[in-house]
Structure formats: C-alpha cells, structure tokens
Design brief:
It is built from 13 helices and 13 strands. By secondary structure, it is α/β, with parallel strands linked by helices. The protein has two domains: 167 residues, 3-Layer(aba) Sandwich (Rossmann fold); 142 residues, Rossmann fold (3-Layer(aba) Sandwich), CATH 3.40.50. The strands form two sheets. Strands 3-2-1-4-5-6-7 form a seven-stranded parallel β-sheet, with helices on both faces. Strands 10-9-8-11-12-13 form a six-stranded parallel β-sheet, with helices on both faces. α5 packs parallel to α7, α6 packs across α13 and α9 packs parallel to α10.
Length: 321
C-alpha cells in the first residue's frame, strides 16, 4: 500500500458499514480532503442512520439527491473527469458505477468497498455482473463502456482477501474508540433478515432453536436493522429471556463504542461475523448453518459465505429444525 498522501478521491456510500470502510480507506491511504457523497432518496430511506455515523466519525459529506435519469446524465457530464480515485459502496449498484465512470479521470482508479455477501459473490463467482436480472444488467452497459474507454483500473478495498485489492484491517475504527473494554458474560447473537429463507416462520423457528441451544448462557440479541420492530421476534426474545439490543449504526461500530469485549459471538451466515472475528480475534465466533431446506434459491452464495467464514477461524454449527 502506498504511503504517499492521495488527493482527488471521491466516496459514494449509502450504508453504515460502507461508511466504516470509507473511514478505513481514508486512514489507510492518507487521503487528503476526501469528497464524500451519501446517497439520498430511497437509499437514505433504507439507511437513515448513515449520515449520523458520518457525523460521528467526523467525516464531511454531502447528500446526493437521486433524481430522474436525464438529470443524472446532464449533471454527470457537467462534473466529469474530476477525480483520480473513486470508492463505491456496492459492486452491483449500476447508479454508483455510472457516477464513478463519469467523474473519474482518464486512467483513474475505481475501488469497490464492502457490502456484505454481495462482495463475496463479486470476488468468488466468475462474471458476477451477469448474475442480476436483465433490467439491471442493461444498466451496467453505459458505465462499463465509459470506464473501458477511459481505461479505469478496478480493485477491491475489502475485509476479504482478494487477488486484486488491498485488505481492510479495520484498525482505524478500533483506534477511534479506545475505551475501557469489559467482557459481559453470555453470548452475543447477530440477527439476520427473512431474505434467503422460504418463509418468515422459518427464521422464527431458527431463532427459537438457537436460543434454546445456548439457553445455559445469558443471551444478547442484535436484530437486523431491517426488521427491528418485528413483533414475533420481540415475543420470542421475551419468551427465552433474551436481552434485545438495537444497534445505532451497525454491530461492529456499536460493540466497539460500548466497550464490549464479547467472548462468544453467534450469527447466521452473516459477513459481520468475519469483521467481528477480525475486531475480536480472541472471541469464539460461530456461524449457525441452517439446513438446505430453509434456503430459498441462494444456496451458492450461502455456501461461499460459510466457506470464507470457516477460513477466517469462524466455527460452523448446524442446528436442526
């Protein structure tokens, strides 16, 4: 990694963990005066706490209004060729790719930040841009053509090892919050979404089985931000005497901020387990692998995630329904 200070860098992010990755890249590459855009519109509606985390980390930013497609082209042409580097938060997002292709200079560098399992898919599956639906694939054409013509290089800045990129150590976020840590007794369980299950009831049953399996311990449960208010999960937690902890931003930041030093962390094939294992190398980290009958059409991605977790020192545990 180069140690010289880098200027003219643009960041396009919309989720809390993408902000963490941007914060790490700025520190690791000694980036001077980065330009950070937090995407607005539907992006911000799904990730309303992202601007708060940017403020928390002391990063200056602007909200990018996501308007109609004709406006995007006009505005992008007006501001084209301004940056030497661009970091985007999601490899598969066609709009982020479009913005980067216009705003990067000739022979500019495009970096992909982490966005959970989609990053592992992009790294491990050949021709990953062929995976989305046809309507999305069509939207890749213009940014790909522009990037080819301008000879942009592409690489990852990721928590995962990649043949083309730098490894995100997460050192900056750990050093940001050098608090007195304490080790609560019990286990911390990282929640997941309905996505990938054949029905919400399947997730409910998996939670019950997991809570029951670890019932000899005090359990802290952090729900996925998309289903924080799920009444059934709240009821299950109450029935199993599980402490319900809602994250302010994302679990990686929240645990460090609160000074947690957990001894055992459990999740369900979440890439957050990978980052938490890196932050807490002494902790016992377990991924509960649910049976194939529970998985809905994304078995390949699910297996890739668990293989990478295992290689990182995360234990894989199967709990039958």
């Amino acid at each position: 990694m180069k140690n010289d200070k880098i200027k003219n860098s643009l960041f396009l992010v919309y989720s809390p963990f993408q902000v963490v990755c941007a914060f790490e890249a700025i520190s690791a590459y000694s980036i001077v005066n980065p330009i950070i855009y937090c995407l607005g519109g539907s992006y911000l509606k799904r990730n309303e706490k992202t601007p708060h985390l940017l403020d928390e980390l002391g990063l200056s930013y602007q909200i990018m209004d996501v308007k109609s497609f004709p406006w995007r082209i006009i505005d992008l042409v007006k501001h084209r060729n301004q940056f030497e580097r661009c970091y985007i938060g999601d490899y598969f997002d066609p709009f982020l790719r479009l913005v980067a292709s216009f705003l990067l200079r000739k022979k500019g560098e495009l970096f992909y930040l982490d966005d959970g399992a989609s990053t592992l898919t992009a790294i491990n599956i050949p021709h990953p841009l062929r995976l989305p639906k046809f309507k999305t694939r069509i939207q890749y054409v213009l940014p790909i053509v522009i990037s080819k013509l301008k000879r942009h290089s592409e690489s990852f800045y990721s928590i995962f090892s990649t043949p083309n990129g730098e490894v995100n150590s997460l050192n900056a976020i750990k050093n940001k919050y050098l608090l007195n840590t304490y080790s609560p007794k019990g286990v911390f369980i990282i929640g997941t979404t309905y996505h990938g299950f054949n029905a919400p009831e399947t997730l409910y049953q998996l939670l019950k089985n997991t809570f029951s399996h670890f019932s000899d311990n005090e359990i802290y449960y952090s729900p996925h931000r998309s289903i924080v208010k799920d009444k059934t999960i709240l009821d299950i937690c109450r029935d199993y005497n599980v402490k319900y902890i809602v994250s302010d931003y994302c679990v990686e930041v929240d645990y460090i901020k609160k000074g947690y030093n957990p001894q055992m962390i459990i999740g369900f094939g979440s890439t957050a387990l990978f980052t938490l294992k890196r932050i807490y190398p002494a902790a016992r980290v377990i991924s509960v692998k649910y049976p194939a009958v529970m998985v809905k059409g994304n078995e390949k991605t699910y297996d890739i995630v668990n293989e990478n977790l295992k290689s990182a020192g995360v234990e894989i545990l199967t709990i039958l329904p």
